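re: ur question from earlier - yeah i can do the single chain one, its not a big deal. heres the input i used so u can compare w yours
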Amino acid sequence: MPKPSYCTACGAPIRWTVTEARKRLAVDIAPHPAGNTAVSRDGRGTWLSRRPTEELPLAPFEKLHRPHVATCRAQQEPEPELTRCLGLLTLSEARELEDGQES
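and the output i got, formated as tokens:
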């Protein structure tokens, strides 16, 4: 059994899968009933993922997972220090600067 992987941004455990388009996709390691990605293993032990459809619904050997990009805490809440280092402003900060210049 391979060692678990962890998200470099938030540290959460993830599972790397290969999509039908042969791209890598990180999914949360635990299945979730609200997930939109079907995950299974092939005969060689490779984790595969796909989007279930009406024509090809979830198979009995597949489990629903959520893509990690949708649940990653670091993606949802960028750290203020990082945006400050990059020279980025939030919209409210930009408006405050505009208001200060007009006075």
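Helices lie at 68-71, 73-76, 80-86, 91-102. not sure if urs matches, ping me
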